[in-house]
Amino acid sequence: MIRTTASGIPVPARAVLALAAILACPGGTRFATSQRLPGELNLEKAVIVTVGPLSRAESSAVTMLVEEIEKRTLIRPAVKSRWPEDSTPVIALGPAATIKAWAGPYAGLMERSTAKRAAEGYTIRCATAEANKPPAVLICGNDARGVLFATGRLLRELSMKRGQLSISAELNLSTAPRYPIRGHQMGYRPKTNSYDAWTEEIWKQYIRDLVVFGTNAVEMIPPRSDDAPDSPHFPLPQIEMMTRVSRILDDYDMDVWIWYPAMERDYSKAETVEAELKAWGAVFARMPRLNAIFVPGGDPGHTAPAYLMAFLEKVTGELHRHHPKAQMWMSPQSFNREWMADFLRIMKEQQPSWLSGVVYGPQTRISLPELREALPPRYPIRLYPDITHSLSCQYPVPDWDLAYALTEAREGINPRPTDEAAIFRAYKDYAEGFITYSEGCNDDVNKILWSSLGWDPEADIGGILRQYSRYFIGLEYQDGFAQGLFALEHNWRGPLLKNNSVEETFKLFQKMERDSRPQLLLNWRFQQAIYRAYYDAYTQRRLRYETDLEQMAMDKLRQAPAIGSLVAMDQADSIAWEAEKNRTALDLRTRIYQLAEALFQSIRMQLSVPLYKAISVDRGANLDTLDQPLNNRFWLRDQYAEIRKLPEEDQRLRALDRIVHWGDPGQGGFYDQLGNEEARPHLVAGAPYNEDPAFFRSPVTAFAARRGWRMSWCRHADALFDYALRMRYTGLDPEAHYRIRIVYSGSLNNPVRLVADEKWEVHPLMAKPNPIKPVEFDIPPEATHDGELRLSWTSDPGRAGAGRGPQVAEVWLIRR
Questions:
Q1: How far apart are alpha carbons 307 and 267 in whole angstroms?
Q2: How far apart are the first and last CA of the chain?
């Protein structure tokens, strides 16, 4: 269903409430007095008053305020150490401990307003002109970080345009963060889709942007990880850039973490441990600031818990030689069932004092509530949520269309406000905060959402997007761009052929593009959204075009009995391959290439391997998959080649008939495509998405593609870890015998077992056919004598890694 805004712009129905909230709340902690009201304080001639000595974070806050105002307004406020004697407006800021020194005539007012002194919190009040008092904005931090985050919040609240600077005269809020850890991993390494090309200046700006929305931690990656040793994009060696980024973070009093995988194969050897301690210590020694180390148990990692934890105890000693207060954290990622049991036993029985906390990340085989229950209460949990990937990941896009999976793939530009809020809120009660997993700036919107929700879990996501748009894109775009971000997420909802909002989203962003000022066209965040809108629209137009061509080709095959099999195949093949000869929507395709170049120039996004030297196609280089085939023409051509080898015409006709009627199970039968949400009526659903966004207890749609596969093989249903994939049939003939035909698909060679009604084995644990082809088995008559059938697929239990189990693409239940 599509609804329309007052301006006539259609929006997704599910986003209507969120869009209404955009207009009502600017984000962050909800305070009625923080809403934008008609009365404005004009700050175009304001001076900034602060009194030293300033901490490093406070000094950075002042610099940030001056420079970010100037960028947006061309107004550069002067910084003073005392209040003006005339009526010049004032922006005064400082810590609660020295209110009397910097708050001037409003010191008493601010002392009464800052009774609550939670760490990192702040109060912002606007005061209109009174007798002997100029109009003022008062920014009081509970501590040095509070001053920093208050300044960021002020920047989000200011109305800034070229030559204009004002704020609501009614602004009055006091707030503190809910979670003490609010960070993002940003690894300067070749595997990322942009970070490896960032200069020190880009790092400085991006870190500042995160500060504005309440981020207080950044996690880096050391020179040695599961990565190539060098990148053609590196402006500096890895250890040198790590050092500089650590110094930048220290300037903002932000916590510095390092994700440090244990890469050696055998940590039971004393010589290995000794060499590793020396190598790790050399990195620790180079860091100007280091607050914590996080060592993943796997992905990468290959060490049993007992040996790994013994090694980490020694590493903690080495860490404290260089940074005495730094913490050590670890995760049980990728552990198999036996290793997970060992880890939990060690944690319970030994309760190691050197370990500060446990991280919950991708490829953890038990759920977060289960881990929290199993760990001693003394150990806090930090989340490590994957916000950067769209498939084959911890939190895949639910029921994504195959066309998107084949083209935009794993690291596309992915604003997912509704999904990310659901993920955050599903797990918010079990952890002390988060440092997200990111492989580049493609997930920028998601970073801001997590930082904002980490400050206030109840913040309205519409308000967050409105502030994002207001601050990064411009005051005049705060509603339209926020609406567009919601719409981009809705583009990825459900079958693309039927998603009418894709074209409306495209028109929305095209209008913003046409109306934008020149400077905005250079804004990488604006470029990203435009790129996605064009990409989605182009993909939909291609899908519709190539689907129509395939239907025409099928019609030609249906004529084979009349025109002959060889003629029918030749004509059908020519029709399907029109997609290669005469492309559709070439104007959109051209603009996508232009925007890819703009994004490389502006933020170093590497959207192509040959053009921008991305490390691989699956690392965000979706310009290289822009024209990925969206119909079965490759599979069909392979089928034609085999059919032409058949000596008799009736054999060829029967083979073509099987193609035309591929999904026909015959009378009294059933056909399901388990990866297609519109064609799987017998798949047993799991928990609702907002309860199980990681699909621990639910079937998940997954994707894998090879040249020559049918489209129906490229998406399939998966079950994770020890969860079973289930189907249920009713209304069967109790007297009939049934046979099942199955296509096992996917990218992994996981063995699979099929059981009927939880007791009748249809087939034992077996390897999937390679190459892929349908396999058939008889269903035991005992399983259907009651008119129902329940099927359960499982894989080998207790496995490690990502936990992907049975992967089933197609199922025919055939009445014999």
A1: 6
A2: 42
DSSP symbols for 716-774: EEEEETTPPEEEEE-S--TT--EEEEEEE-SSS---EEEEETTTEEEEEEEPPPSS---
The tokens describing 235, both together, are 């402006």
R_g (Cα) of the chain, nearest Å? 29
Residues 792 and 133: their CA atoms lie apart, in Å, by 75
Amino acid at 813: L
- On the question of pLDDT at 17 being above 50, the answer is no
Beta-carbon count within 10 A of 455 CB: 26
d(CA 586, CA 555): 27
Pair of tokens at residue 198: 């960032």
DSSP letter for each residue of 236-287: S-HHHHHHHHHHHHHHTT-EEEEE-----S-TTSHHHHHHHHHHHHHHHHH-
| DSSP label at residue 253 | T
The two tokens of residue 63 are 């610099």
Q: Which two tokens stand for residue 606?
A: 């590497």
Asked if 789 and 757 touch (Cβ cutoff 8 Å), the reply is yes
Alpha-carbon distance values, 173 to 26, 34, 35, 182 (Å): 12, 6, 10, 21
CA distance 812 to 808: 12
Cβ atoms of 456 and 174 closer than 8 Å: no
> Percentages helix, strand, coil for the chain, rounded to the nearest 5?
40, 15, 40
Confidence of residue 38 (pLDDT cuts 50, 70, 90): low
Q: What is the pLDDT of residues 439-495, one digit of tens each?
A: 999 999 999 999 999 999 999 999 999 999 999 999 999 999 999 999 999 999 999
| Residue 202 · residue 64 · CB < 8 Å | no
Measured between alpha carbons, how far is residue 559 from residues 225, 468, 652, 657, 659 in Å? 58, 57, 13, 10, 13
Q: Other CB atoms closer than 10 Å to residue 66's CB: what's the count?
A: 17
Q: Taking the mean position of all CA atoms in its chain, how far away is CA 38?
A: 37
Strand-pairing partners, residue 744, are 808
Walk across the sheet containing 164-168 and list its strands.
40-42, 164-168, 159-161
Angstrom distance (rounded) from CA 453 to CA 423: 11
Cα 671 versus chain centre, distance: 33
Whole-number pLDDT of residue 114: 63
Of the candidates 258, 350, 337, the residue with the CA atom closest to the CA atom of residue 295: 258
Are 644 and 779 within 8 A, CB to CB? no
3-state SS assignment for residue 671:
strand
pTM beyond 0.70: the answer is yes
Residue 541: CA count within 13 A, CB half-sphere: 16
Cβ contact 42:53 at 8 Å: no
Q: How far are the Cα atoms of 3, 481, 507, 515, 591 from residue 511, in angstroms, in the given order?
A: 19, 11, 6, 6, 15
